[in-house]
Design brief:
There is one protein chain. This protein is an alpha+beta fold. The chain is globular and about 100 Å long. Strands 17, 18, 19, 20, 21, 22 and 23 form a 7-stranded mixed beta sheet that branches. It is 50% helix and 18% strand. It has 4 domains: 153 residues, no CATH class; 224 residues, no CATH class; 159 residues, no CATH class; 182 residues, no CATH class.
Length: 800
């Protein structure tokens, strides 16, 4: 019986080629897009899935009452170890690290590498696979390191590199040699242990080395909030059970400021990637899933509309089968089989489309999507269920409508087109157009917001600024003098307008904050101000606007500082310039305000501009970047000249750099990916709508051929006939816009609320979406109607 159903289904598909093509094309597009999005979401949810004992792994994250204190991803250095030592019945293991970077060398090969000085428990706690080395004892001593497979290939061109030696340029102890005692196997899936805050680590080293990159014994200082901390709970222990122990340790060991402002939260590692950065990844997954559902729903609606519309061709067949004893259940099974067969063909094509579009879509979403043949069992099951559900849903309504028709009317080849059916068909068209307009308007707002990012006045000039990120970090007066000489030599190049040495550049990562007491204030209520350590050329290089006083120079007093406008407001200063502020603690003192700069966007526009204080390098030799402002059209030639100076001065250091333009764009990678995915969805929506409209109009023209002939005999011209059909769809599109606009406004407004600086709500995107929707539909209908409306009425009246 099933074989017969499939045979009949294939015959009908072959007989009605146009409508079969429209249905298959629409479903194939919907299934392909849904599969691409589903695979992307699955891969995002699989981050950290390769970690050992994942349900028991947690990340320690800070929440701060006061603004601009510390990043949420860092906690006091000793906390994780203290939890294991003091509460072994609750905590099975821990791992702490201070991610940083340094220049690393092997013979004449020099690269800037990401480091993780931290506890030696990383390999055993998380079950990180080793290609070379002993998993039980991956580190031989404090001068041993574990490197990634990629790092081994980068330096040596092979992975069997045990006991080879790499030289690391440390901040405080100069160059140190480390023997390789382990090589981490390259993993196909991302995890947030080897990749922290988007930066993949290349080299792992024991905790005692942390003193070479930050202060000595920082892992033992409770007031040093600098480490990324992980803990592994004992079996059966709930994270809530650690709330009291954590609070007790903080109250016993931390200073009053941390006690008053810091609370520690345990974030499950199986959701950490999705929920960090204000849940950015999870929101992205939700949005894409909804868009994919809309695209697939529109394809299903197309199928239902066309199936019901072309039902007249099947009426006599249904009647005869009923006369010869066919039961309604069998007829329903027949139509469901046809739907499943058609969906299966579309699904087969979708696999080919998936493989074809996988690299392109992976590039759009910045994610490597797996091949179909490497799908997990869960993904295969999801795909089969998706195809089955789509096939059944698409076939249910046509099957029940057609098989419910009265026998005599069916035998005559007639079926009543009642109000219910017309209402359903028009309602489904309204839903389609509403979804298309909704996605289109939201896409336009995403584009407007991204344009706003790149067109808004930033407060600094990023054009033709490139930043050398591989600066040797010899943080003393000798090292500072050396890098200042290189800076000055580069500024003698006619292609260089200015150059500056700084600890940070405007890339969203600041160097920490400092509590500042305003004039007349008390130490009980300091204002947290973000710190920037720079030289006197920073304002000129980045084009900062001085609104009062002057920027400091390299020869200024170490206690001279510069504030931004937000800091002046936060500290309630009268004039700013010439006033004194006080900062408690080891980095503090009494500072004199020399100048005020106009507010500029140091982080992305999700965050408000924070109060900032500029310190000169005279306060302390802290630097990581050498930023250079070019003034030439031939940037490549200028950079080549700068590189020659660099290599002459630092022959054992790499020359690695980035342009501020590129860094600024990378701050909005998520929004850019969302925009590209939404653009694709919008295009697919309109393709599906136009396919569906083409099918419905084609059927309507066939069904109303005699009516068109009569109208022409009575004097109607081609324009009148086309207008007749346009009028029928005008109300549908108009209602769809009326429904979609307020929903789109609400969604777009809520999405824009995540940004402290956002584009304004405007009627323009709504008008654009409405006009394009009307125009495309009108053009399609007019083109289809023109041939029939221009035909000889005699031929139309003879049509059966």
């Amino acid at each position: 019986m099933t074989g017969m159903y499939i045979t009949i289904a294939l015959r009908h598909l072959a007989k009605r080629k146009l409508f079969s093509f429209i249905n298959i094309a629409g479903l194939a597009i919907g299934i392909t897009f849904s599969l691409l999005i589903a695979v992307y979401i699955w891969e995002e949810k699989q981050v950290n899935s390769n970690l050992k004992d994942l349900p028991r792994q947690y990340y320690l994250q800070s929440a701060w009452k006061a603004e601009n204190m510390y990043m949420p991803l860092i906690t006091p250095g000793p906390l994780a170890k203290a939890l294991k030592d003091n509460y072994p019945s609750l905590v099975a293991n821990y791992y702490r690290t201070f991610p940083c970077s340094a220049n690393v060398s092997y013979k004449d090969r020099h690269f800037r590498m990401s480091l993780q000085p931290g506890d030696t428990t990383a390999i055993s706690t998380f079950g990180l696979p080793l290609l070379q080395g002993n998993p039980a004892h991956p580190f031989r001593d404090d001068n041993s390191i574990v490197i990634t497979e990629e790092t081994a290939m980068k330096f040596f061109g092979r992975t069997n590199v045990l006991d080879e030696v790499l030289t690391v340029d440390t901040r405080k102890n100069g160059k140190r040699n480390y023997a390789i005692t382990g090589v981490l196997k390259s993993e196909t899936r991302l995890n947030t242990v080897t990749t922290i805050n988007g930066f993949k680590s290349d080299i792992f080293m024991p905790m005692p080395n942390i003193g070479y990159f930050i202060g000595p014994d920082s892992d033992k200082d409770w007031n040093s909030v600098c480490t990324a901390s992980y803990i592994k709970l004992q079996p059966g222990v709930k994270p809530e059970q650690l709330a009291v122990p954590i609070r007790k340790l903080v109250m016993m060991n931390c200073n009053q400021q941390l006690k008053d402002n810091m609370s520690i939260q345990l974030v499950a590692m199986n959701t950490f990637y999705l929920d960090t950065n204000n849940g950015l990844v999870r929101k992205m997954c939700y949005i894409l899933a909804v868009i994919a559902f809309f695209v697939l729903l529109m394809a299903v609606i197309n199928y239902v509309n066309i199936s019901i519309g072309t039902s007249v061709y099947r009426l006599k067949e249904i009647g005869l089968r009923k006369v010869f004893g066919g039961r309604r259940q069998q007829l329903i099974a027949q139509f469901l089989s046809e739907s499943l067969v058609l969906t299966a063909i579309a699904a087969f094509l979708s696999i080919a489309f998936f493989e074809l579009l996988r690299p392109l879509f992976g590039q759009v979403l910045n994610k490597t999507l797996p091949h179909v043949w490497s799908f997990s069992g869960m993904m295969v099951l999801f795909y089969l269920l998706l195809v089955a559900v789509v096939g059944i849903i698409a076939g249910v309504y046509p099957a029940f409508v057609l098989t419910a028709s009265h026998l005599l009317k069916v035998l005559k080849g007639k079926i009543s087109v009642g109000k219910g059916e017309l209402l359903f068909r028009k309602g489904s068209l309204v839903i389609q157009f509403s979804l298309a307009v909704l996605v289109f308007v939201c896409t336009l707002y995403i584009s407007r917001q991204i344009d706003y990012f790149f067109k808004k006045e930033l407060g600094y000039n990023k054009e033709q600024v490139f930043v050398i990120s591989s600066v040797p970090r010899q943080w003393d007066t000798v090292g500072l003098k050396r890098i200042e000489q290189v800076r000055d030599e580069m500024m003698r190049n006619t292609a260089v307008k200015s150059a500056t040495i700084s600890y940070e550049v405007p890339d969203g990562m600041n160097g920490g904050s400092l509590p500042v007491i305003p004039p007349g204030g008390t130490s009980d209520a300091p204002v947290n101000v973000e710190m920037l350590v720079t030289d006197g050329n920073y304002a000129a290089t980045f084009g900062l606007k001085i609104v009062a006083g002057a920027f400091f120079t390299d020869q200024d007093n170490a206690m001279d500082v510069v504030l931004n406008e937000s800091a002046v407001k936060a500290l309630h200063l009268k004039t700013g310039v010439g006033e004194q502020i006080e900062a408690p603690g080891p980095l503090g003192g009494t500072f004199r305000i020399k100048g005020i700069v106009k507010d500029f966007h140091f982080t992305n526009m999700q965050q408000k501009i924070a109060p900032m204080i500029f310190f000169s390098q005279n306060t302390g030799a802290y630097y990581r970047f050498l930023s250079i402002k070019l003034q030439t059209a031939d940037a490549r030639k200028a950079i080549a000249g700068i590189e020659s100076v660099w290599k002459a001065r630092f022959p054992d250091a790499p020359f690695e750099y980035f342009f501020m333009d590129d860094k600024f764009q990378s701050m909005y990678n998520t929004e850019t990916r969302l925009k590209q995915a939404a653009n694709v969805a919008t295009a697919l929506n309109f393709i599906i709508i136009l396919l569906g409209a083409a099918g419905v109009v084609a059927f309507s023209l066939t069904r109303r051929t005699k009516e068109i002939g009569v109208r022409k005999v009575l004097g109607a011209d081609t324009r009148n006939i086309i207008y007749l059909f346009l009028k029928e769809y005008t109300s549908v599109i108009l209602i769809a816009n009326i429904i979609a606009w307020p929903v789109a406004y609400f969604i777009a407004d809520r999405w824009l609320d995540d940004y402290a600086y956002r584009t304004s709500m405007s009627v323009v995107p709504f008008i654009i979406a409405g006009v394009i929707t009307f125009s495309l539909t009108y053009i399609l209908i007019a083109l289809q109607c023109f041939r029939t409306a221009s035909a000889n009425p005699t031929g139309l009246l003879r049509s059966e």
